Known about the structure:
Elements: H1 2-12, H2 14-41, H3 51-62, H4 65-76, H5 81-104, H6 109-133, H7 143-171, H8 176-196, H9 217-236, H10 240-269, H11 280-336, H12 341-369, H13 372-400, H14 408-438
Amino acid sequence: MAVVRDLRVLLRLTGFRRLLVVRVLSQLSDGVFQVALAAYVVFSPEKQTSPAAIASAMAVLLLPYSLLGPFTGVLLDRWRRRQVLLYCNLLRGVLSCGTAGLILLHAPDWLFYLSALSVTAVNRFVLAGLSAALPRVVDEERLVMANSLSPTAGTVAAAAGGSAAFLVHLVVAEGSGAEAATVLLAALLYLCAGLSALALGRDLLGPDLPVSGAVRIGAAIASTARGLHEGLRHLRQRPAAPQAMTAMTAMRFCYGALTVTVLMLCRYAWADAPHRSDRPTAGDDGLALLGLAVGLSAAGFFAAAVVTPWATNRFGTTGWIAGCSAASALLLPPLALPFTVGPMMLAAFALGVTTQGAKIATDTVVQTQVDDAYRGRVFSLYDVAFNVAFVGAAAVAALTLPTDGRSSGLILALAVLYAATAVAMARVRNVSRGTQRAG
């Protein structure tokens, strides 16, 4: 099979293989840390969680990326990306230890969120750097396959990290000790991720711009506005990239709203005692169901990695994004509207396939259309759009969802948005084909 052959070739590439190790360890750590946050914020028996509370937590943890994102992109196009992967992961390990200490000390929520924000904020440098560096270790011919394997392997690793966090909660007695132990496990894995970056050459991952010593922070801040303008102007000259990014942002919005829906269903509607937060096992029941949903979604991401290279060859990247959006629109109502465990878990798998399939195609479009000198800035903007869409979705869910997570109106509205995205990308594909024929 062509997929197996390309996969073997990719894994023979030393640079790609080592970069993949960094990604897997980094996102394995993320999975552990994120489940620790979910357990502490959403499933703690003493907390009365609501959609508004979840939206507030997401805003605190994600919205600051809108300020960090452009700054991240400018630095990623000036700093050695290998050094970014090294030092950012080491920093996250140290900051995670501080977060664990705050949990044990029962610190005020605002202080806990500030500490957690410091950990997740650094993640912007890591994820954007990994995406910007990938074309440096893989030729363009196999970039689609690399985009299938690398981010999907990271997502599966994050799911595995989440599973490891669930195991910690099973072994350690419920309470702050379990959450702190989970965060300390994440800190250890962040340390391993940082050290694994040392296997890559200092200059292997770029950027192409000459590096004439360390970038001064003041100079970097001063150049942020100019760098943003240059990146946006570069994007305007390559319409295929912003079109794909816009479609993926819309799909991310839908995925974010569904994430809040599943969180509330797991916390209240599906637990053994849905309206009794004082029952000790209610949080564990909900956390186990959330773990199942995460695992099935990760399985969908893996399936997308297998099918997307074939699909993009058959339909093109734009056609595949349109197909993924259309499939989401068709599958969401029958699977989600019953609001029962079985169909919703099937939806987690199906939307995992379509969401990751569209993202693989979008990443490939951006990487092939954007010059290396601008790639860090563009991927940072891409990342910012992702986070704003996710937080916006959480805010909409907070306004529309009842406490138990059942809202038929929200599900139908998301299906319509998926359908509109599919129609828009189908039109883009038709226009592109017409232009090619005319040429």
